[in-house]
Amino acid sequence: MSITVECTTRPEGSKPRALRRSGMIPANLYGHNGTESIPLVVDAKSVERLLKKAAVNKTELELKVTDISWNGTTVIKEVQTHPAKGTPYHVSFFACAKG
Predict the structure, then answer these.
(1) Strands annotated E in 1-85
(2) Cα-based distances in Å from 13 to 1, 17, 18
(3) Residue 92: DSSP 8-state
(4) What does pTM read for this prediction?
(5) Domain boundaries, the chain
(6) pLDDT tens-digit map of 38-49
(7) How many whole angstroms separate alpha carbon 80 and alpha carbon 45?
(8) How far apart are alpha carbons 86 and 1 in whole angstroms?
């Protein structure tokens, strides 16, 4: 099963709350280039669909960052949810080592 998620880099100075109101969820990509991380935004609907199919730290998925033309295999490292609503609040992706 191949799961592909498309996202873009988070605009400089953007506020997470404003992003969530506009239907986007803040995210980060770790491990793609040593200790460097990339702030991202992902469409909220695609995150909800993704979480129905993928398990945290188990399911490998293809992540495509369209702004910097990076794509690779990742796993979901962490999903933060809103305490009252239960909706996704922030997602962390971790790049898998190429082997």
Answers:
(1) 4-9, 24-33, 36-43, 60-65, 70-81
(2) 36, 12, 11
(3) E
(4) 0.89
(5) 4-95
(6) 999 999 999 999
(7) 15
(8) 27
**Helix (H, G, I), strand (E, B), or coil: what is residue 17?**
helix
Q: Does the CA dihedral 56-65-42-92 come out positive or negative?
A: positive
CATH architecture of the region 4-95: Beta Barrel (2.40)
Q: Where are the alpha helices (DSSP H) in the chain?
A: 16-21, 44-53
> What pLDDT score was predicted for residue 3?
80
Q: Which two three-digit tokens encode residue 22?
A: 């506009």
Q: Which of 13, 78, 71 is nearest to 47 (CA)?
A: 78
Question: Buried (b) or exposed (e) across 61-83, using 16+ Cβ within 10 A?
Answer: bebebeeeeeeeebbbbebeeee
